Amino acid sequence: MVGRKNKRMIVLFLIPAMFIYVMVFIYPVLRTFVMSFFAVEAIETPIAAWTFAGLNNYIGLFRIDLFNRSVTNYLTLWFVGGIAVLFLAMVYAVILTSGVRLKKFWRAVIYLPNIISAIALGTMWINYAFRDNDGLFDRIVEAVGGQTPVMWTGPYMGLWSLLIAYCFGMVGYIMLTFISGIEKIGDEYYECASIEGANIFHKFFFITLPLIRGVVRSNIVIWTVSLGTGVFAWSFMFSPTNLTLPYTMPPNYMREIIFGGRGSAVVQRDSGAAASVGILIALLVVVISVVSSLITRKDDVEM
Amino acid sequence: MKKFSRILALMLMLAMVFSVAACNGGSTTAPANGGEAGAAGGGAEYDPQADGIEAGASLIYWSMWSEAEPQAIVLAAAARAFTEATGVPVSINFNGRQGQREGLAPALAAGETIDIFDEDIDRVTGQWSDHLLNLDDLVNGVFSDTDGQPFRAKVNSGLMEMAQERGGGTFTVVPYQPFVFTTMFNKDLFEEAGITSNPTNWQEFLVACQQLVDIGIIPMTVDNSYIPALFGTTVTRIAGSERTLEIFENHEFSDPAILRTAQVFEELITNGFMSPRAATNVFPEGQAAEFAAMEAVAMYLNGTWLPNELREINPDINWGSFAWPSIDAGGAGPEAHNIGAQCFGINVNTNYPNAAFAFIRWITLGYWDQRLADDTWGVPMANDAVWPVQLQDAEVIFASTTDRLPWAAGAEDDPNVTAVIIESFQRMAAGTINAQQFADNLAAIS
Question: Which member of A40, A172, A241, B316 has the lowest number of beta carbons within 10 Å of its beta carbon?
Answer without folding.
Answer: B316
